[in-house]
């Protein structure tokens, strides 16, 4: 271990027991040791220093590997966040825990989890996740006394509004850590390496041209903060680190992940460190994320989580040979999103079989990048693995579901016209993803056009794609977005109705239908009732999607239904939705009704979620002005103007500074800002010039 790495380890890792020199005798960690599970989203093993990446900056992870056990060949069962984490927490493959895709599925409530097992054994349990895809609605909160999925925070310009940065997640963890009772089970999920790759400084500059690696380095730095906090607390936990899946980064034609099950997305880092874990050991056997739960319970001396597909890796941890095990993989994302064939795979010894319309076979030790398909030349081996995989998956329909035990929710959905989702095509049927992957360029081009504000340019590529692939749900949604953005409402409705036929239980489809109908209702009042019905469907299907409530309340506001608008916001709050726009909107309504105290509480909550929420800042400015606190009012209006520059805010700020504070220079600057923001034909422009001239004298 070099001096730099040694310094980092000494500074950040708890002083935990480690075996010294030679194979350590098999032993278990103390039965009451705490456990910290750290999952890092979208992380390829070969982009970490301890896995051989020469340009990586992962000293914390490398230090854990140096002082613990690193698994060289750890496999994810699925290249998708929610299903992979379900496998980590249950020890089961997706077809047996029920969570098959990020959308449309929930964890089977009959499947026990690691958190439930540890909670029943007296552990305090807490989880902190960094992306909406792990919202408690998918069922992964079971067994956790605290489940922090408040991901809709921060500045929308810096991060996807459905995620939070590792630093934000860790701030929440550190606030909670002192109150966790011992022993505890703490799960911390970092999402940053997921697209879009936007590492903060200094990582953005250091990894210019390699933002994905910059994201991993940023997470590594935050992990050092967590380990240091654990050291200062005096805890001696078992630390478990794992990636949920990797990232293709262009391999096999896939830019990100979710479609293929090649090693680029399936081989992940997996590291154990802490009491009872030998130092510096590398396990080269093939293992899987499904092995984590049984390994953790074995290390703690607890009974295993019932019904697991994985096995305890305790013998391998302590240097003993283990009988080889087979590992299943799958991805149904392309089936649900694009209407292509789903993929299943099986790793058995050195062989990896991929079940597709054109099956594939690879010998991983000699071909780790899966560039030489041996299915034709090794027909006997291919057939045997295909038969094994088919037997495992017999009767598996992979139908999108709501909570099968929630009879009330199912009845409500039925009353709204929702019957159920569509099953995926049978494995081996339909478009082979190897063929369809080249079409995704058209979809990406259309999405870029919309993001860049050129929705008309999105229509041609996505229409071309749909001519070849009419069952592509994502293409239909993108076409609908483009048509909606160009106010071609009938065309947008046609696209969204086709999407609804493919995915009747998709909340996003109904939300987009509702938004389109609401826009059309502005000129055709007869459509308003249809829009409201679709909003209700969308909320029933996904009661914790903030954007649906935002669009719903905007529609109700245009309808001048203030009472209903407030009731919808309260429904969102009751569902656990924390959103700065909704909080600010409700504050504005309360303020208009003369309820300043209630409004202030909503505005302050909005600013906790997003310190740059302009409406909340303006609302607090109005409250301060009403009580005669001119300095505070000016300060709030200045912040609102900085967050969302408008002529109206600038003029109000100028008036406060001129009339109430006698601040001629500040007033002049504000009115000059207002003039710069005014339209060329603004009738107030001449008045602004006169005021500025007067203040200049």
Overview of this structure, please?
It is a single chain. This protein starts with a helix and ends with a helix. With 697 residues, the chain is an alpha/beta fold. The longest helix has 23 residues, at 211-233. The relative contact order is 0.08. The chain has 30 helices and 13 strands. Strand 12 (351-355) and strand 13 (360-363) form a beta hairpin.
Summarize the structure.
With 697 residues, the protein is α/β, with parallel strands linked by helices.
Q: Structural class of the helix and strand makeup?
A: alpha/beta
State the distance separating the first and last CA atoms: 70 Å
Number of strands: 13
Percent helix range: 40-55%
Strand content: 5-15%
Poorly predicted ranges: 1-27, 153-160, 402-421
Supply the number of helical segments. Answer: 30
Mean pLDDT: 89
Largest sheet: 9 strands, mixed
Q: Which shape, going by the Cα principal axes?
A: globular
Cα-atom Rg, whole angstroms? 28 Å
Question: Could you outline the blueprint of secondary structure elements for this entry?
Answer:
Layout: H1 3-12, E1 35-40, H2 59-67, E2 69-75, H3 81-90, H4 94-97, H5 114-120, E3 124-128, E4 146-148, H6 166-176, E5 184-190, H7 203-206, H8 211-233, E6 238-243, H9 263-266, E7 267-268, E8 270-273, E9 281-288, H10 292-300, H11 314-317, E10 327-331, H12 333-338, E11 343-348, E12 351-355, E13 360-363, H13 379-392, H14 407-415, H15 433-436, H16 440-451, H17 456-468, H18 473-485, H19 489-502, H20 507-521, H21 528-541, H22 546-558, H23 562-574, H24 580-592, H25 596-609, H26 614-626, H27 630-643, H28 647-660, H29 664-677, H30 685-696
Parallel strand pairs: 1-5, 1-6, 2-9, 3-4, 3-5
Antiparallel strand pairs: 2-7, 2-8, 6-8, 10-11, 11-12, 12-13
Helix pairs in contact: 1-2, 6-8, 16-17, 16-18, 17-18, 18-19, 19-20, 20-21, 20-22, 21-22, 22-23, 23-24, 24-25, 24-26, 25-26, 26-27, 27-28, 28-29, 29-30
């Amino acid at each position: 271990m070099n001096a730099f790495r040694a310094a980092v380890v000494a500074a950040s890792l708890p002083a935990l027991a480690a075996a010294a020199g030679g194979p350590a005798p098999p032993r278990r960690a103390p039965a009451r040791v705490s456990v910290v599970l750290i999952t890092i989203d979208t992380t390829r093993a070969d982009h970490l220093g301890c896995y051989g990446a020469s340009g990586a900056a992962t000293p914390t992870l490398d230090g854990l590997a140096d002082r613990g056990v690193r698994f060289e060949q750890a496999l994810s069962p699925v290249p998708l966040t929610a299903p992979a984490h379900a496998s980590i927490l249950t020890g089961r493959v997706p077809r047996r825990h029920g969570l098959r895709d990020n959308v449309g599925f929930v964890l089977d409530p009959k499947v026990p989890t690691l958190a439930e097992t540890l909670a029943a054994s007296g552990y305090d349990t807490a989880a902190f996740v960094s992306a909406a895809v792990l919202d408690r609605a998918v069922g992964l909160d079971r067994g956790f006394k605290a489940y922090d999925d408040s991901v809709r925070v921060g500045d929308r310009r810096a991060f996807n509004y459905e995620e939070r940065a590792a630093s934000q997640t860790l701030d929440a963890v550190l606030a909670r850590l002192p109150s966790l009772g011992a022993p505890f089970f703490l799960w911390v999920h970092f999402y940053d390496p997921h697209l879009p790759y936007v590492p903060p400084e200094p990582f953005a500059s250091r990894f210019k041209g390699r933002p994905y690696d910059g994201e991993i380095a940023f997470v590594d730095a935050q992990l050092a903060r967590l380990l240091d906090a654990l050291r200062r607390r005096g805890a001696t936990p078992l630390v478990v680190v794992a990636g949920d899946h990797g990232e293709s980064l262009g391999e096999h034609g896939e830019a990100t992940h979710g479609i293929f099950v090649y090693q680029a997305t399936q081989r992940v880092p997996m590291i154990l460190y802490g009491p009872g874990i030998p130092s510096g050991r590398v396990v080269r056997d093939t293992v899987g994320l499904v092995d984590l739960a049984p390994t953790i319970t074995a290390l703690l001396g607890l009974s295993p989580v019932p019904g697991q597909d994985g096995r305890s890796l305790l013998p391998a941890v302590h240097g003993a040979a283990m009988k080889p095990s087979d590992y299943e993989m799958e991805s149904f994302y392309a089936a649900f999103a694009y209407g292509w064939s789903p993929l299943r795979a099986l790793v058995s010894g050195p062989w990896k079989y991929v079940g597709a319309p054109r099956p594939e076979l690879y010998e991983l030790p000699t071909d780790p990048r899966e560039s030489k398909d041996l299915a034709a030349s090794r027909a006997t081996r291919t057939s045997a693995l295909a038969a094994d995989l088919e037997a495992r998956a017999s009767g598996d329909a992979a139908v999108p579901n709501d909570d099968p035990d929630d009879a009330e929710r199912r009845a409500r959905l039925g009353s709204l016209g929702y019957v159920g989702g569509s099953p995926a095509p049978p494995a081996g049927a339909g478009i082979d993803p190897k063929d369809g992957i080249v079409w995704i360029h058209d979809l990406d081009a259309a999405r870029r056009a919309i993001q860049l504000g050129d929705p008309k340019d999105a229509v041609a590529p996505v229409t071309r794609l749909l001519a070849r692939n009419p069952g592509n749900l994502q293409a239909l949604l993108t076409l609908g977005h483009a048509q909606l953005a160009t106010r071609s409402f009938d065309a947008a409705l046609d696209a969204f109705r086709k999407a609804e036929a493919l995915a009747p239980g998709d909340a996003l489809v109904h939300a987009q239908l509702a938004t389109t109908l609401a826009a059309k209702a502005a000129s055709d009042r007869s459509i308003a009732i249809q829009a409201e019905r679709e909003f209700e469907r969308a909320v029933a299907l996904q009661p914790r999607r903030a954007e649906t409530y935002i669009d719903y309340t905007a529609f109700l506001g245009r309808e001048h239904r203030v009472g209903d608008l407030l009731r919808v916001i309260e429904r969102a709050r009751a569902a656990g939705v924390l959103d700065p726009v909704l909080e600010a909107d409700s504050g504005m309504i309360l303020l208009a009704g003369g309820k300043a105290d209630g409004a202030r509480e909503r505005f302050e909550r909005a600013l906790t979620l997003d310190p740059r929420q302009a409406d909340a800042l303006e609302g607090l400015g109005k409250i301060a002005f009403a009580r005669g606190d001119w300095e505070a009012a000016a300060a709030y209006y200045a912040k609102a103007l900085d967050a969302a520059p408008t002529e109206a805010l600038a003029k109000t700020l100028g008036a406060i500074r001129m009339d109430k504070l006698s601040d001629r220079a500040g007033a002049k600057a504000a009115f000059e800002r207002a003039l710069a923001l005014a339209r060329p034909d603004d009738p107030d422009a001449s008045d602004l010039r006169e005021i500025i001239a007067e203040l200049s004298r």
